[in-house]
Amino acid sequence: MSSSCSPISVLEDLPNELLLLICRYLSSTDVLFSFYGLNCRLSQTISGYFRHVVIAQTPYMQFKSICTSILPEIGSNIYSLVISNQWKGVLSKIFLSYFGERMSLTFPNLKYLIFISFNANSLKLFLDSLQNLPELHEIVLCYQYEVAISPCESQILLHRIFSANNNRLNSILFDDESIVFSLNDKNSDILYYNIQKLSIDLKTVNDLHRLLTVLPQLISINVTINEESIELDKLNKYMSIDSLKQFQLQSFGPSWNLDELMSVLKRLPNVEELSIAIESLDDARLIDGENFFSLVSGLSLKKFNYFVRFYDSSPSIDPIKVRFTWQKFPQEFVCINSDDEKTLVLYTLPFAFSYLILPSSLAKNEIFIESYAPQVKMLTLYDVSAHMVDTFSVIKKCHRIKRLNLRTDENIVASKISFLHI
Questions:
Q1: CB neighbours of residue 69 within 10 Å
Q2: What angle, 0 to 180 degrees and rounded to 10, lies between the N-to-C axes of helices 289-296 and 258-265?
Q3: Spatial separation of the C-alpha atoms in residues 67 and 374, rounded to whole Å
Q4: In this structure, how many other beta carbons lie within 10 angstroms of the beta carbon of residue 345?
Q5: Torsions phi, psi of 25, nearest 5?
């Protein structure tokens, strides 16, 4: 009986398409560590991974090899770099020990830098190394957990960020898990003309006014306000930001009134895209379309998105009458009451907001769920039923959801669930 042996395949014999398919299941650093430098063909095949490098979840010896043997050789090809500050903040220090004084020489074409899980101190150290990088104009800061940071410290940190890379940065984006900043009137004479695009969490609306004052060339801002101001600062004569074209405000902690909102909108005479998602306890002017139209009719709006969650302690407000007042606006509005008729939501279509805090009964409303489900990424539900089936009937339609918070009331967090996929 004769036996035949199948030919043994080696990695180098695989076609490029199959090699790249395998790489899709590996991290960026695994691809570089495993394939770079084996031969010219493999190095060329994975050259796409030279442009966007992610340094995260990396064992120490692998990280050391990448820093000493790979990054110095491919550094000029890197356009975007993601640094995760793992190992309890040690990784960034080790990275800086290799490249801190020669960042601009190693990564001369770096355009985007993303920081993950950096605290204020580790971030300051890294910012010091960002000098004379001619192409670096945007940084993104994700999961910037910080137990506590004083107003003075947050202002110093913002200054360091805004002026990093010799004032070359024009886009700075903090994600929803980053520090909540507060500012004071000190150093308000320091203006940052370089900043054009910003996404940030602020403490109060007064902090927003102070921030706008030091960013005279701002074009786009996405801001979250987390707390109520004790009193709106009416003494300052704030200047308008003529360059600002896109403004998004999101604020579900403090209760807003029309005067606070007017104080901000008056500073944005040329805004073209306006998105506002807020809540109010008692100011019915925020759900009065005729009143609101007089506020924004002088603006040259090309896009307007609105969402307001309104608490009504008086007898129920008629949603039909509320919606009727918004007829002067070109788009469609939806107005819905909660089951107990104490909470009303008013919003524009198509729905444009990815983060919501809602009473559970509203979230289950079929009209509402069809509006927000395709867009929502982070959802907080309160007054949640003990029957989890009710909750999952809501989230099963939220195909983009990444995080769900459940509260038994406004103060007690019952559960926090993170999703990769639904």
A1: 13
A2: 20
A3: 42
A4: 25
A5: -95, 5
